Amino acid sequence: MPVAIVYADPEGDRAVYWDHTIDLFAREEQNRFWAALAGNTVRKVSPAIGVDSARIARHWPKTQPGTAPLLAYALAGTPEALRGYSGAIRYRMLDPALLAAAGTDIDAATGVFPAYPLDLMADPIFAGDYRPMLAGRIVLVGSDTFGADQIATPITRIGGLERIAGVAVHAQMLRQALDRDFPAPLGLGWIAGLALAALGLAALTARIERPLALLLAAGTVQLAALAALPAVLEAAGYDTLKLPVLGLALGWLVAYLALAAVLRARSGEERAFARGALGRFLPESVAREILADPARLDLKGEERELTLMFTDLEGFTRFCNGRDPRETAAILNAYLDAMSAVVLAHGGTLDKFVGDAIVAFWGAPIARPDDTTQAVACALALQQAADAVAARTEAQFGASLGRTRIGLHRGVVVVGNFGGTNRMQYTAMGDAMNIAAPLEGANKYVGTAILGSEAVRAAAPGHAWRMLGQVAVSGVAEGLALHEPLPPAQAGYAAAWNAAIHTIVSGKGAQDWETLLAAHGADTAATALEARRGLIEQGTTYELPSK
Fold this sequence. Notes:
Distance between the termini: 124 Å
CATH topology of the largest domain: Alpha-Beta Plaits
Structural class: alpha+beta
Largest sheet: 8 strands, mixed
């Protein structure tokens, strides 16, 4: 039976296993011991075990040329070509709970090998009991003395111990050598590739802003994959001792945080710019919603029912004649700025400016249930804003601005981006636009400042309306019913007006109307309606005069 004895080489073990404080007598005693064994088959083997900076036995040691072979290599008969392995010691262990239940002699902290007291084997009474268990097996004999040859391993704490005897580590290495269990090391190429992959994934993840659930899912999946990477590589036959899992995780995290910070900063600047740009044509609340969820902004042409507004500053062309263009520009900019602010404050989208005219709509790019109600409230507020601008213009330039006329209609249009390759505009097109525009012009013939169609009145019943009969509009087969919204303070007047008109239409006489007209003779709308009262009595459509 071959026998091997570990040999602490005073020259070759780099003082790891040789204590030079006892060199004077220990070297001499060891030499006498080996001289006594001369001529037999006992072999010298190295007790070397690879430990890391934390003094944990994790890897196979590198042996020095000319020194004794490692114990595991010698007993397993490992070929010389395989003796350069310096990878992980591949520990094997059994479930501590199963070991405890089975009552075996195996300590979970030592792995899968039983340990027996040597003195019992030397006792003739018990020796016979151990002989069958040891027959035909490789037996390692070593000390298990507290404070001497005690080593920590990756599995000791799992078994409830801090350290185990060095001979138990040699048993694990011997099992590995017998099985030729020497997986291929991960080269620098592998590690560099994994590092680049981690950085690339971090960069892609940093670009995810919304939804938050997607960001969390992406991060969780990647970190889980990183945690599973050692097991996957080991299953593929690679040694993962030098796999920097923590380094890869920290690299991923640092790269993600750095890139996310840069992208968020740039995105913040872009959002601020976009918010400012959108805010010039969309309400701030709508701009925020679009920036928070760009998917809500669908700019391709689509059919939608919108509430449309056309405004015009009466007599502005005459106002500009003979005036300094710079002064005209200042007055117009002040007017449009004030009007635009009112439209945006009421949730409207500014379509375009045509000279002093404004085109706006409600219901795109984001529709809300109260769009029409807001559009009517905006029209009333525009009158107040226009009066304020006119007063400032009078005070500053000594010039009088005309009144602002407004037309409102609700109908189906196509809204989206229209234009050429290099320039596009988000606007609305359709018959409803062609109906809304004449309503603005009809104000000057019926003595009003704001006119809304029946579709608008029906969609905004909370406002006070007075009926003004029907007018003929191009593109509409039948006459278009006209209504004027009045401020809440005039709701009673609107109700009395409508009652008087119903009396006329029903053929019950015009006494109520005449009483109302006498009391409100300064009302231009009442004067204009009186002029066409006959048409209302007959139910005839009023033909607007041509321009």
